[in-house]
Amino acid sequence: MGAIVVSGTIPTRDQRLLALRSGGRCAMCRRLLVEERTSLDREVIIGEMAHIKGENPGSARYDPSMADAERNQYDNLIYLCVEHHTIIDGQGNTYSVEQLHRIKAEHEAWVRGRLEEEMLGVTFTELEFLTKLLLQSPQPVSSTLTLTPPLRKIEKNELLDVADSIMLGMVRIGQVREFIIRASALDLSFGERLKMGFVKEYKRLRDDKGLTGVDLFDRLLAFSSRGSHDFRTQATGLAILVYFFEACEVFEP
Question: I want to staple 248 with a disulfide (CB 3.0 to 4.6 A). Which of 11, 67, 145, 231 is the partner?
Answer without folding.
Answer: 145
